[in-house]
Amino acid sequence: MTASKAFRGKFSKRLKKDWKRNKLLYVMILPAFVYFMIFSILPLFGLLFAFSDYNIALGLAGSDWVGLKHFQKIFTDPYMLTLISNTVIFSLLDIVIVFPLPIILASLMSAAKNKPFSKAVKTAVYMPYFISIVVVCGMIRNFTSSTGFIGAFFQSIGQLESGYDMLIKPDFFKGIITSTNLWQQMGFNSIIFVAAIAGIDSTLYEAAVVDGANRWKQYWHVTFPSILPTIMMMLIIKIGGILNVGFEKIYLLYNPLTYGVADVLSTYIYRLGVEGNQLGLTTAVGLLNSIISFVLLMGANTLSARLIKKSMF
Amino acid sequence: MVEAKKSPSFIIQKICVYGALAAISLICVLPFWHMIMESLSDPLELTANKGFLWLPITDLEGAWSFDSYKIIFSFGRIWRSYLNTVIYTVSATALGLVISAMAAYVLSRRDLMFKKPLMIFFLITLFFSGGLIPTYIVVHSLGLANTMLALIIPGCCNAFFMILIKNGMDALPYEYYEAARIDGAGHWFVFTKIILPLTGPFMAVTALFGAVGHWNSWVAASLYINSRHPELYPLQLVLRDILVNSNVQGIKGPSGLPIAFYLRGIQAASVVVGSLPLLIIYPFVQKYFEKGIVLGGVKG
Predict the structure, then answer these.
(1) Predicted confidence band at A6 (pLDDT cuts at 50, 70, 90)?
(2) End-to-end alpha-carbon separation of chain A, Å?
(3) Reduced to 3 states, what is the DSSP secondary structure of residue A35?
(4) Which residues of A touch B150 (CB under 8 A)?
(5) B76-224 falls under which CATH superfamily?
(6) Comparing C-alpha atoms, which of B126, B110, B105, B115 is closest to residue B169?
(7) Which residues contact residue B260 at a Cβ distance below 8 angstroms, ignoring those fewer than 6 apart?
(8) Domain-by-domain residue ranges, chain B?
(9) Closest chain B residue to the Cα of A136, Cα to Cα
(10) Are the C-beta atoms of residues A193 and A265 closer than 8 Å to each other?
(11) How remote is the C-alpha of B84 from its chain's centroid?
């Protein structure tokens, strides 16, 4: 008792001293604290709406608590399977195509030693990153329309009936999204790998040359193992985000004809939640999405820790 | 990498590397080149064109056409939305920077009693998010919807950039701070006169990433500004109407022809008008983006 009393005494004394000394610090951090309370912590409590028929016009008082109703719908609605399979396919395409190419680009960039040339290449390959998604989608619509140069190409090789836009054809949709993601992200995503390669100790290469390694062998035995931790770190983040396919591009480009191949969890949440006002159901979908993502992230992290002894946490 | 120079295999490798890089660079740039060429083409000739444009399609006298630009610049909503986007980008970036820098300064003091709980609080916001719908409900419940503040306050801060600035401040010698404090300087003085000037590059990185994000963002506007308030639209939302919805309501063409005849030219010109500011600026600040990615990547 006395010990805890003494501790409490000490605690309140420390508190007083800290307050006197650092009063201004607490004032300075207040805006950030309030900001994150409102825009990060409060929405976390908003996840409770997953158990309600929340209606934005009626507010919480006018909304019914419905227990697990939305989760029952999610697990029985066959459309959820379409959504999940589209989401996972988009992500796998992203991991198989959009993820590795920046690594190859970075390897090429670090092999080109001419300074002005490298600078020009960097400026060119970063450019698409700075174009907004809305504008990119406008460009995609232009190129893939029946009179656009990509649309015209597919017409000339007989893959597209003349007069049709590629965007109303389900067959093209995933290809369009993935290839344009690659175009927009490849350069910018290569930055981190360029930095990783630049950080490799040059004596490793000198030793490899002494051992008679050619450039290809130097790459596989020095460069690649050295940047593997960076690659794994980025891959873990990708795997954690398998269900978080960005909705912006798909939302701006899909239409009811392509929903079957285009609709993903995030577009569904936006369409039904914001436009259809089904806030309870879509919060439930978002909640499940976050839980699965968290599990995937942790799983990938553990796997990486086991396999190459590197992990994020 | 090291190898005997001038050997034939070395030269072939070099050609492959430079060739591949040149090809990739061209692929990155050419789509935008095509849009610029379309925007300078005669809009009426353009409508039926099917191929890639290396040069603009000239009008009957063989001259480039600025008709598409004339049409788009005479469209009042573009100018209004440009102004809005500048207001949103500058205010949100500045507000975010002030809030983050102050918090970062506090979190990099060693003698603060509640430093650890505060740090955990900000880390939680980094890893757990309520998602789109709950955030949407919060913003609407606060009555921010359909006001300019809806595009300035939510999204102005994020814990990632805050921690980036904090790491920058942590990297400074702590003696700077201690010496100033012993000399009787107050926190505000140390923050504004000593620490902030020394964390310039970190602030620049966060400001640039933030500004590009705000400039190009359309989702927040589509969530929080409804179509009854077009005067609050940022540029990207007006561009969405023109480019994605092919909605050219209110745009006037030069002659008696229906505006649809000019649509493709108008769309090309708005792509250029909407993207050019960033595309002109970024090469000059490119190194900060590289730096930002590296700093962010290292901290995971």
Answers:
(1) low
(2) 39
(3) helix
(4) none
(5) MetI-like (1.10.3720.10)
(6) B105
(7) B248
(8) 8-73+248-298, 76-224
(9) B271
(10) no
(11) 15
Question: Cα B3 to chain center, whole Å?
Answer: 42
Cβ neighbours, 10 Å, residue A216:
11
Residues B186, A24: C-beta atoms closer than 8 Å: yes
How far CA A227 is from CA of A196, A199, A250, A301, B298, in Å, comes to: 6, 9, 32, 17, 13
B48 vs A125, A139, A147: nearest CB: A147
d(Cα A128, Cα B212) in Å, to the nearest integer?
13
Cα A135-A141-A147 angle, rounded to 5 deg: 135
Chain B contact present for A85, CB below 8 A: no
Residue whose C-alpha is closest to residue B36's, from B52, B49, B23? B52
Q: Which domains are assigned to chain A?
A: 2-51 (no CATH), 69-308 (1.10.3720.10)
pLDDT digits (tens, 9 = 90+) for B71-102: 988 888 899 999 999 999 999 999 999 999 99
A52 - beta bridge partners?
A: A65
- Looking at beta carbons, which residues of chain B come within 8 Å of A52? none
Q: From CA B59, how far away is CA B42, in angstroms rounded?
A: 5
* Confidence at A1, pLDDT banded by 50, 70, 90: very low
Which of B113, B156, B216 has the CB atom closest to A132's CB atom?
B216
Task: Label residue A274 by pLDDT band (50, 70, 90).
Answer: confident
- Tokens, residue B109: 């003091």
How far is residue A228 from each of residues A107, A190, A233, measured CA to CA in Å?
13, 14, 8
What pLDDT shows up at residue A30? 95
What's the CA angle centered on A137, arms A136 and A138, to 5 degrees? Answer: 90
Is residue B55 packed enough to be buried (19+ CB in 10 Å), middle (13-18) or exposed (0-12)?
Answer: exposed
DSSP B57: P
Contacting residues for B161 by C-beta, under 8 A, at least 6 apart: B96, B100, B206, B209, B210
Can you give the C-alpha Rg of chain B in angstroms? 25
Contact A68, A212 (CB under 8 A): no
Q: Report which of B105, B123, B118, B93 is spatially closest to residue B212, judged by C-alpha positions.
A: B93
Model pLDDT for residues B121-167, shown as the tens digit of each residue: 998 888 788 888 889 889 988 999 999 999 999 989 989 889 889 98
Nearest partner of A145 among A121, A170, A118, A163, judged by Cα: A163
Q: Which two tokens stand for residue A201?
A: 């100790």
**Contacts with B156 from chain A: Cβ below 8 Å:** 35
Rg (CA), chain A: 26
> How many CB atoms sit inside 10 A of residue A36's CB?
22
Considering only the C-alpha atoms of chain B, give the largest distance between any 2 of them, rounded to a whole number of Å. 78
Whole-number Å distance between alpha carbons of B34 and A262: 27
Question: What phi, psi does A65 have (nearest 5°)?
Answer: -85, 130
* Alpha carbon of residue B184 to chain centroid: 41
Interface ipTM: 0.91
Phi (first) and psi of residue A257, to 5 degrees = -70, -25
